[in-house]
Amino acid sequence: MMRFICDSMLGKLAKKLRMLGIDTSYQNKITEEYLIATALNENRTVLTRKTAFIISNKDVPFLFILDNNPKNQLRQTVSNFKITKEMINPFSRCISCNKELNRLEKDLAEGKVADYVLNTTDTFTTCLSCGKIYWPGTHLQNMKRLINNIFIGSDEQEAHTLD
């Protein structure tokens, strides 16, 4: 199973990888020493935009991310590591803290989500670490579209979609 750690310049990429269900460590203030130590201790591959990291790399596996655009960064990562749609588990990790999500019974979401959400949604997941609650809202279609574009390409999207 792939495990990544993103440098401080790649927060949006980290969230997108987590959205795919890929274990991705990220902190917005991180030293190069911490990045390397974490990569070595947790068997992670470093994703970086810092050219200095390439020069000073200390035998840590890494990928230099070429683009500033998070969607293109995701495309590069998926392509480089030959990640297939079958290898991912979308919406299974907290995009905030990277922990695995757990099912949350609807009655336990009461008082923690807006009344409208509670009245119109039956499926909830939660992060036991940070307490964030997720549900299939309007943003879900946009995320599914992004996943389909990354793995299938926009031309074939109609024939094979993530459901």
The name CATH uses for the topology of the largest domain is Rossmann fold
Mean pLDDT: 89
Major sheet details: 4 strands, parallel
Amino- and carboxy-terminal Cα gap: 23 Å
Low-confidence stretches: 154-163
Shape: globular
Output the structural class.
alpha/beta
Order of helices and strands: EHEHEHEHEHHEEH
Care to describe what's here?
This protein folds into two domains: 3-87, Rossmann fold (3-Layer(aba) Sandwich), CATH 3.40.50; 96-163, no CATH class. The chain contains seven helices and seven strands; from the N terminus they run E-H-E-H-E-H-E-H-E-H-H-E-E-H. A four-stranded parallel β-sheet has the order 2-1-3-4, with helices on both faces. Helix 1 (11-19) crosses helix 4. 36% of the residues lie in helices and 15% in strands. Residues 154-163 have low confidence and may be disordered. The protein is α/β, with parallel strands linked by helices and 163 residues long. Helix 1 links the parallel strand 1 and strand 2.
What's the short story on this structure?
The protein has 163 residues and is an alpha/beta fold.
Question: What characteristics describe this protein?
Answer:
single chain, 163 residues, alpha/beta, Rossmann fold, 2 domains, three-stranded antiparallel β-sheet
How would you summarize the topology of this molecule?
Layout: E1 3-6, H1 11-19, E2 23-26, H2 32-41, E3 45-48, H3 51-56, E4 62-64, H4 70-80, E5 101-104, H5 106-109, H6 115-120, E6 124-127, E7 133-134, H7 139-151
Parallel strand pairs: 1-2, 1-3, 3-4
Antiparallel strand pairs: 5-6, 6-7
